[in-house]
Design goal:
The structure is a homodimer.
Chain A: H1 2-10, H2 13-23, E1 27-28, H3 29-33, H4 40-52, E2 56-61, E3 64-69, H5 71-82, H6 90-103
Antiparallel strand pairs in A: 1-3, 2-3
Helix pairs in contact in A: 1-4
Chain A binds a DNA duplex through residues 8, 12, 14, 28-30, 38-48, 60, 62-65.
Chain lengths: 104, 104
DNA sequence: GAAACAGATAAGCAGACGCTTATGTGAAGC
DNA sequence: GCTTCACATAAGCGTCTGCTTATCTGTTTC
C-alpha cells in the first residue's frame, strides 16, 4: 500500500525534520545533514524511505544529488484526509463548498 | 511528539481499516471485529494506539465500549499538512485565499 | 453472588526499524 | 588514471511492533 509507505515514512521524527528542511528549499544530502547530528548512511537511508513514499524527489547534479519535496506524496495525504472531511471543523467544510462553486 | 503517535498509528494498515470503519459510524470493539480476521486482544491494542494518538475516542456504555472518530487527530494532520500548502496543487491554494477572505 | 459476556492487560515471540561501521559506486579534479 | 569527494549499499545489532495465548477487570443477568 502506498499509504503505508507515506505514514510510515512520516512516523519517524528525524524523517519529518528532513522533510521540513526540504520544504524550505531543495538541498543535497550533505547540506541536509548540517546541524542534524546524523550519520551520512542514516541520512541516505532516511532519504531512500522518503523517496520510496513519494514524499521526496532526487536529481543528480554532478556528484551531488539534489533532493526536493515531491507534491505527489502530499497530495496523497490530502486525498486520504479528504475522505474524513465530515469530521473536520465546519470552517473547512464551508471552504469545500466554495471550491465546488469555483469549479463550476 | 504528538505527530509521532498520529503518523505511527496510521502507518499500520489494520489500524487505518479500523479507523475507516469508525468513520462510517461509531461502533463498539466487537462490532468492529466483524469480518476483520483479527483477535480480540489485537483489536483492543489497536484501539488503544488510535486512542493514544487522538484519532479515536471511547465511551463506556454498560459493558460495551463505544468508539468513534476524534476530530482532534484529524485536525492535527490537517494542520501539519497546511504547513506545506506551498506544494499543493494550485487549486487548493486558491481555496485557501478564499478562506481568508471569508474570515474577514 | 455465580455465570456469562465485553473488553483490557500481561507475557512471550517473530519480524521490522533505525542505527552503526565498513565498503562500494560514480563523478570531479589534478 | 589515481585520488578525492558525495552518496549508496551491506551487514550486524539493539530496540520496537504487532501478533499470539492466557488471564484479569468490570458489567449484566439470573
Amino acid at each position: 500500500m502506498v499509504e503505508d509507505d507515506i505514514f510510515r515514512a512520516l512516523a519517524d521524527p528525524t524523517r519529518r525534520a528532513i522533510f521540513e528542511k526540504l520544504a524550505a528549499g531543495s538541498m543535497n544530502a550533505s547540506a541536509l545533514r548540517q546541524g542534524m547530528a546524523i550519520s551520512q548512511p542514516a541520512m541516505s537511508q532516511h532519504l531512500a524511505v522518503l523517496r520510496g513514499a513519494g514524499l521526496v524527489r532526487e536529481a543528480r547534479q554532478g556528484r551531488f544529488v539534489n533532493y526536493d519535496v515531491d507534491p505527489a506524496g502530499l497530495a496523497l495525504i490530502a486525498q486520504w484526509l479528504a475522505k474524513y472531511r465530515a469530521y473536520w471543523p465546519a470552517r473547512v467544510d464551508a471552504l469545500e463548498a466554495v471550491l465546488k462553486e469555483m469549479d463550476q
